[in-house]
Design a protein that fits this description.
Length: about 350
């Protein structure tokens, strides 16, 4: 019998992507979809591409509606998921695609988000190295049997996956990280915002959350500490909105550690991701495009060693809605339930 699923925030971008991927998952049945202001309307009015789910109607996002399912996905803005924690205590698996349960530090939450701090859940980035120099321990081990999972921030997981191998192997210095990201506006959600109107972003590149104010910064630091970073983790993080609906192209650089060879640097990334289906290091001299990962649960990564600048350069492309959010959530769900990790997920993008 398939596992019953409810998805909150189903009229939004993240909720819609979760539904798109779950619709092809052989082990689940999407039974309930919920929303706030759009409750009572057909799902297909808000997600017209989800033709196989046209029979569903958006119900109110209340604990009573969400309870009684095997799995609940919360695809809500930050500060809204925590209210359901206690109400869903009897639900076997709850996965939060928002920020409420990602951070372990209440100080970081207060500084970057504000409002009530909620208990951290198991972080949903299976490929992330944890445990420092041991090098072989990954976050997926912590996801086995998990009942509460915090899906990652898309920018945060992209940068963390880019740099964790170098941190764990000790071949880069995390005290001087610079990350610049080209990002699509779907990462900001579906709510109407003037700065995200087509007239504002078409033909333009627009930086935002500059100077250390982006909310994914503490999440990146947390992930890199878990990978074994010692001392201060200093990161200059600058996202730039570009006129593509989906995608992240993250260029992250860090100083090369003293006495490290080029071969040792590349080996750190090759050994970290050699057996990973969804995180793939490209051949030397090759670098990804966002177009190559559209719709896929894939992070493609290119590595360069800039000896003149004394820095390692990692360029990573992901689909912010797929691997960056919904794909990571479903991949983590598969691991937690003991299913094949790749079930319902594809490495193949959509082109052109």
């Amino acid at each position: 019998m398939p596992l019953s699923v409810a998805v909150s925030g189903a009229s939004g971008y993240a909720g819609g992507e979760i539904l798109r991927l779950l619709a092809a998952h052989p082990e689940v049945e999407i039974r309930t979809v919920t929303a706030h202001s759009n409750a009572g309307q057909p799902l297909i009015d808000h997600q017209p591409h989800l033709r196989s789910l046209r029979h569903l109607t958006l119900q109110p996002s209340t604990p009573e509606v969400l309870a009684g399912h095997d799995i609940v996905f919360l695809a809500l803005p930050h500060g809204q998921s925590g209210q359901y924690t206690e109400a869903l205590a009897d639900t076997a698996l709850v996965i939060d695609a928002g920020a409420d349960h990602r951070l372990t530090s209440s100080d970081d939450w207060d500084a970057f988000y504000g409002g009530d701090f909620h208990e951290p859940w198991t972080y949903g980035v299976p490929e992330l190295l944890v445990g420092g120099a041991s090098g072989t321990v990954k976050q997926r081990d912590k996801l086995v049997g998990a009942s509460r999972i915090a899906a990652p921030g898309c920018n945060a997981s992209t940068v963390a996956l880019s740099l964790a191998p170098g941190v764990a192997a000790g071949v880069i210095d995390p005290g001087d990280i610079v990350s610049v990201l080209a990002v699509g506006p779907s990462g900001a959600g579906k709510s109407l915002k003037t700065n995200l109107l087509a007239a504002e972003i078409l033909g333009s590149a627009n930086p935002y959350a500059i100077g250390g104010s982006h909310r994914h910064i503490p999440e990146i630091r947390q992930a890199l500490r878990g990978a074994g970073a010692a001392g201060d983790i200093r990161i200059s993080f600058t996202p730039v909105l570009v006129p593509m609906s989906r995608g992240i192209l993250a260029t992250s650089t860090a100083p090369i550690a003293d006495g490290v060879s080029d071969a040792q640097i590349r080996e750190a990334w090759e050994s970290a991701y050699a057996d990973e289906p969804f995180v793939q290091l490209l051949p030397e001299g090759s670098f990804p495009r966002t177009a190559d990962v559209t719709g896929a649960n894939t992070a493609l990564m290119g590595l360069a060693i800039d000896r003149a600048a004394g820095r390692v350069v990692v360029v990573t492309a992901v689909d912010n809605l797929a691997k960056g959010t919904a794909g990571a959530a479903i991949q983590s769900m598969n691991i937690a339930l003991g299913l094949a990790e790749t079930t319902g997920l594809s490495v193949n993008g959509v082109a052109p």
